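Reopening closed ticket. The problem is back. First fold of the pair:
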Amino acid sequence: MNNRLPHSFFTGLIFCCLPGLALAQGTLNLTGSITNTTCALSQESQDILVTLGSASLKQFTVKGATAQAKDFAIKLEDCGKGVTTVRVSFSGTPDNDDASVIALDAGGASGVGVQILDANMNPIKLTEASLPYPLEASPAEVTLKFNARYIATRLPITTGIANASGTFVFHYD
């Protein structure tokens, strides 16, 4: 036979019989607004393929050497009237030797990563937002231009398939 009193009995006893443990009541005020401040990602930009092509091992003689950049675009549409600029950040598996670039998929080339650059060829580090791209509030499409290229992250480099993948996120101002 169990002669122990239930735990809830003692909890209730503590709250009802100890002075100074009275329950207090407060108020929570929530404020905000509903706005039309984002853009829609165009259908063609939901799965972007950037063909970096083949790069010669001879291009990568030192750490930081790069191959030719290939441009790509992210298209937005139906931007809200409250939107003036957007910044874009990219993420993916960081390269073991340079966490600012995307690592290549395992089983292929090594010593190289993929660097993302803005339209002015400024590198964008992984998870950091780009410089702002201006937006116009209209149903028209807005094209955000970027570049990608291979970059040597360590030596020696081994040859092989050099594929990588990542994602992007918008930050509206």
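Second fold of the pair, where the issue appears:
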Amino acid sequence: MPCDNAVHVGFQLDTHIIQHFIGNFKFIFYTNPYLAYIPNLKDGALARRAVNFFLSNAMNHVKMFDISHSTHLHYNTETIFEGKKCMSTFDATRKHYNAAGVHPTTDPDDPRSQFAIDRYEDHLPKLIKPGMRALDLGCNAGRFTFAMEDMGAIATGIDFAEIPLLHAKKVAQKRKSRCQFNIGDMAALPYKENSFDFALLPHNIGYLPYQTLESLSVQLKRILSDNGIFVLTMQDQLIKSAGEETLPERYDVQTGLIGGSRTIPDKGTYASPWYFWTVAFAKYIVEKHLPLEEVVQIEENRFMLVFCNKKG
């Protein structure tokens, strides 16, 4: 069997390595989610079809959308191309954000970033109580992390991009802030049970494959305290994309992935993939693990979904 055609996809299923063969493809399932990697693909389209075929069958066995234990799917299973290079959506997004660095609209030290916090000024302060342990999921440079600290929380931010996190740590040092910042993957959060009372996913859902939100919801049930709150803010892609003529050309019906790119001045063009999320679908996935409290419409196409952890 040609080694060049090996497709590696990481799952944390149990303590064993599971091997499966389809045609010329060897599927190796590791217990370590960080080993999820798809290298040396000679035919990326064929590899993606094979992966999707195998995953559709694997879900019948591991109950990917009806998880009853802490099963971690890596941040992605899809692959994309940047030029002639094949990479995972996880790596492509991380590369994009590290190249972009810190923009004035994401820099907590720049007044131009305040607009993002102001959108929720009538809502977040009502949910965050003094002394709450709060987690900012996909924190970037810490815009919402510091905002939650200002609201009285003991705040922690986690992100997979090193450059924005480095800036966040410098801002924390400058402010003498108690905020903590961790490098990590939302599909394998490095936190113990009952570590937080509040978690926020601020407008980052588009970077998450559908399986990852499922995995994240399972983890939040564990790491949030009883009656802990999870807030997800998002746009509805169906509303956003209405009338967009190029969408069918960029949309993968099997994965929900929308292809795209972003040019960063003096640095080049980077793949910028995005997943097609609707409010109804996000609510459906999370609500299987965390009961829904309310859906608040912030703007015409900006919504805040509030869930409450019930451990009893």
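Update: turned out to be a display glitch only; the data is intact. The radius of gyration is 19 Å. The longest strand covers residues 224-234. Please close again.
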